[in-house]
């Protein structure tokens, strides 16, 4: 039996005194608006119980209007064309240029689209449909990692990697936006630009730490004029400004250089700091030694002078360079989030790394010893980089922060494009941020975290559609009477006919989301996103994402989908397993997009209950300075 689906479709308390930051400093001038290293996973499923059985934009429906093809010049070189005007040789096929690797960061271009794939003749309507309506993104151009998220004086602040000049990676600057509710956003002038020798080649990823007196320190990686990765300090020029408009770079930056034995391009992305039992601050920075991914440990009292500890926080052989390391506590008894400095009974620590080699975010649960400054995974077989992933789709460089206003841990993640650079230049933008997710410990399994969309997103819900206890016989296809499938919030549960399931158990065939091989006598539930029929265009990614998801005794398979044009965020079993997909349909757009419920099982019926809401668009616009 094989039931498939298709989807397009951190208040610091009890802290000791610290050396103060410099007073009245000069503000920054002119602020302006790899291979996979996972441990092999033994597939123990012979039957897919009831994975996502929604179909979104699965049918190739022809849009009745023929659209004018976008004709926009991406690049030109008249002189080169003149040289070749009378030649008859065929053009040499070259791979598109790499982005970021030569400067020592992860590849920023979607490499699965190659140069020899023909560019699809995208229309204005198709490209316009792809832009999201309630996910955060700038008004134009390139965006990647979320940086230094924080809550200050009633406003949530998001900083992010941004190219002000183009829809492809480069000239990395810190964009800045604020929100009251994490859904509707106001764009602010750039927070920091690459204008000093220590960050002239990029103001890269960083994290915020809120000190006991309310001061904010921002540590970030800069790419120097010699392409060396260094750590720099910045802080607000005016802490009483709710907008935090102006940021000061510490005059004696950098504050940390690559230590002996660490490559000049293998030292980046400092975490939020936390207080140890000695009253000193700690933070960790990702790196590698040969092919072993490591997390370096530093200690400071003033955020200016740093001591590299002899021991590393953790290392995992074979995982390669660790980027965007995140480290934070979760309560095993309470549902609230914890400040980054919390430790003790009833607390586990999450260690997460973005692996440069395979471009995925991995995490593990474990125990942090604040005396030895060592973290130990609960299960070595599920260690960082070889076990659980935060998201099994297109999701990278994630970053959490503690929301002291609502006592919760929130997670941001960069969702890149899976189309070609040529298309991104045509549409004038690239990448979005995920809907912020709460993060808590899964008390039922004891081995997972749970990620769930923030409550605030539900404010966008409008008219709903609901069906209960619909029996889906094998091979059935049920269209849902939803007028528009572009912006949806869908929750659903599924129950398998247990007796029929036992009767069709095939003990000689195991299954995962991309293959069906091997022999085993057990079963698992798999949660998958199959994009293979998401578009007729050949220059887009159309892979199959997914993993197994624990469905415990007495639980129904449940899921939630946030559909926002070209992005679908899918959450199974309250967020035990999450998949983010990017899709670029050419026909099933606007009124031609549909939602279906189906069962591809070969002998088992499934009972489904579904509720779906239309989602309004969020308000994202420049801050109205003229109204102040």
Automatic annotation (TrEMBL):
<feature type="transmembrane region" description="Helical">
    <location>
        <begin position="43"/>
        <end position="62"/>
    </location>
</feature>
<keyword id="KW-0926">Vacuole</keyword>
<dbReference type="InterPro" id="IPR001362">
    <property type="entry name" value="Glyco_hydro_32"/>
</dbReference>
<dbReference type="Pfam" id="PF00251">
    <property type="entry name" value="Glyco_hydro_32N"/>
</dbReference>
<dbReference type="InterPro" id="IPR013320">
    <property type="entry name" value="ConA-like_dom_sf"/>
</dbReference>
<keyword id="KW-0812">Transmembrane</keyword>
<dbReference type="Pfam" id="PF08244">
    <property type="entry name" value="Glyco_hydro_32C"/>
</dbReference>
<dbReference type="GO" id="GO:0005775">
    <property type="term" value="C:vacuolar lumen"/>
</dbReference>
<feature type="region of interest" description="Disordered">
    <location>
        <begin position="73"/>
        <end position="114"/>
    </location>
</feature>
<dbReference type="InterPro" id="IPR018053">
    <property type="entry name" value="Glyco_hydro_32_AS"/>
</dbReference>
<keyword id="KW-0472">Membrane</keyword>
<dbReference type="GO" id="GO:0004564">
    <property type="term" value="F:beta-fructofuranosidase activity"/>
</dbReference>
<keyword id="KW-0378">Hydrolase</keyword>
<feature type="domain" description="Glycosyl hydrolase family 32 N-terminal">
    <location>
        <begin position="135"/>
        <end position="453"/>
    </location>
</feature>
<feature type="domain" description="Beta-fructofuranosidase N-terminal">
    <location>
        <begin position="18"/>
        <end position="127"/>
    </location>
</feature>
<dbReference type="GO" id="GO:0005975">
    <property type="term" value="P:carbohydrate metabolic process"/>
</dbReference>
<dbReference type="InterPro" id="IPR021792">
    <property type="entry name" value="Beta-fructofuranosidase_N"/>
</dbReference>
<feature type="domain" description="Glycosyl hydrolase family 32 C-terminal">
    <location>
        <begin position="456"/>
        <end position="614"/>
    </location>
</feature>
<dbReference type="Pfam" id="PF11837">
    <property type="entry name" value="INV_N"/>
</dbReference>
<feature type="region of interest" description="Disordered">
    <location>
        <begin position="17"/>
        <end position="38"/>
    </location>
</feature>
<keyword id="KW-1133">Transmembrane helix</keyword>
<dbReference type="InterPro" id="IPR013148">
    <property type="entry name" value="Glyco_hydro_32_N"/>
</dbReference>
<dbReference type="InterPro" id="IPR013189">
    <property type="entry name" value="Glyco_hydro_32_C"/>
</dbReference>
<dbReference type="InterPro" id="IPR023296">
    <property type="entry name" value="Glyco_hydro_beta-prop_sf"/>
</dbReference>
<feature type="compositionally biased region" description="Basic and acidic residues">
    <location>
        <begin position="80"/>
        <end position="96"/>
    </location>
</feature>
<protein>
    <recommendedName>
        <fullName>beta-fructofuranosidase</fullName>
        <ecNumber>3.2.1.26</ecNumber>
    </recommendedName>
</protein>
<dbReference type="InterPro" id="IPR050551">
    <property type="entry name" value="Fructan_Metab_Enzymes"/>
</dbReference>
<keyword id="KW-0326">Glycosidase</keyword>
<comment type="similarity">
    <text>Belongs to the glycosyl hydrolase 32 family.</text>
</comment>
<keyword id="KW-0325">Glycoprotein</keyword>
């Amino acid at each position: 039996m094989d039931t498939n689906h298709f989807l397009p479709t951190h208040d610091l308390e009890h802290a000791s005194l610290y050396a103060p930051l410099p007073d009245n400093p000069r503000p920054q001038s002119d602020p302006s608006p790899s291979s996979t290293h996972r441990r092999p996973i033994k597939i123990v499923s012979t039957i897919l119980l009831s994975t996502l059985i929604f179909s979104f934009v699965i049918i190739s429906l022809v849009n009745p209007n023929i659209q004018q093809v976008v004709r926009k010049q991406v690049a030109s070189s008249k002189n080169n064309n003149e040289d070749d005007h009378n030649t008859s040789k065929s053009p040499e096929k070259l791979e598109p240029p790499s982005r970021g690797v030569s400067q020592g960061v992860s590849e920023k271009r979607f490499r699965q689209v190659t140069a020899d794939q023909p560019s699809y003749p995208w229309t204005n309507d198709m490209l316009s449909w792809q832009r999201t309506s309630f996910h955060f993104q700038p008004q134009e151009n390139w965006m990647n990692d979320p940086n230094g998220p924080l809550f200050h004086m009633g406003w949530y602040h998001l900083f992010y990697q941004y190219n002000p000049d183009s829809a492809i990676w480069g000239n990395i600057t810190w964009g800045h936006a604020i929100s009251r509710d994490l859904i509707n956003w106001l764009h602010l002038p750039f927070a920091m630009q690459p204008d000093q020798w220590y960050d002239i080649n990029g103001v890269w990823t960083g994290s915020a730490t809120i000190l006991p007196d309310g001061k904010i320190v921002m540590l970030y990686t800069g790419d120097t004029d010699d392409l060396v990765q260094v750590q720099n300090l910045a802080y607000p020029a005016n802490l009483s400004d709710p907008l935090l408009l102006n940021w000061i770079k510490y005059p004696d930056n950098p504050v940390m250089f690559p230590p002996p034995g660490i490559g000049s391009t293998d030292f980046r992305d400092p975490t939020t700091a936390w207080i140890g039992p000695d009253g000193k601050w700690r933070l960790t920075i990702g790196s590698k030694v040969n092919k072993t991914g490591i997390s370096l440990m530093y200690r400071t009292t003033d955020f200016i002078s740093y001591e590299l500890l002899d021991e590393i926080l953790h290392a995992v052989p074979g995982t390669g360079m660790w980027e965007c390391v995140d480290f934070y506590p979760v309560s095993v008894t309470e549902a609230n989030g914890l400040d980054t400095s919390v430790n003790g009974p009833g607390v586990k620590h999450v260690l997460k790394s973005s692996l440069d080699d395979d471009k995925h975010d991995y995490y593990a649960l474990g125990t942090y010893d604040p005396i030895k400054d060592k973290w130990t995974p609960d299960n070595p077989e599920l260690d960082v980089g070889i076990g659980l992933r935060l998201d099994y789709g297109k999701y990278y460089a994630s970053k959490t922060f503690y929301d002291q206003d609502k006592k919760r841990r929130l997670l941001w993640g960069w969702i890149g494009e899976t189309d070609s650079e040529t298309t991104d230049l045509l549409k004038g933008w690239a990448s979005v941020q995920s809907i912020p997710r709460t993060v808590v410990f899964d008390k039922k399994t004891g081995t997972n975290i749970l990620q769930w969309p923030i409550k605030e997103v539900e404010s966008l819900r409008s008219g709903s559609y609901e069906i209960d206890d619909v029996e889906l016989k094998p091979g059935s296809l049920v269209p849902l009477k939803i007028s528009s499938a572009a912006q949806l919030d869908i929750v659903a549960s599924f129950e398998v006919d247990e007796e029929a399931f036992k009767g069709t158990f095939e003990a000689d065939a195991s299954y995962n989301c991309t293959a069906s091989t091997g022999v085993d006598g057990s079963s698992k539930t798999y949660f998958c996103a199959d994009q293979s029929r998401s578009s007729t265009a050949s220059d887009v990614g159309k892979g199959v994402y997914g993993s197994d998801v624990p469905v415990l005794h007495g639980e129904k398979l449940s899921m939630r989908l946030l559909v926002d044009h070209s992005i679908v965020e899918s959450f199974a079993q309250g967020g035990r397993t999450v998949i983010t997909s990017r899709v670029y349909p050419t026909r099933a757009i606007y009124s031609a997009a549909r939602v279906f419920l189906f069962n591809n099982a070969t002998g088992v019926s499934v009972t489904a209950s579904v509720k779906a809401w239309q989602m309004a668009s969020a308000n994202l616009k420049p801050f109205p300075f003229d109204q102040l």
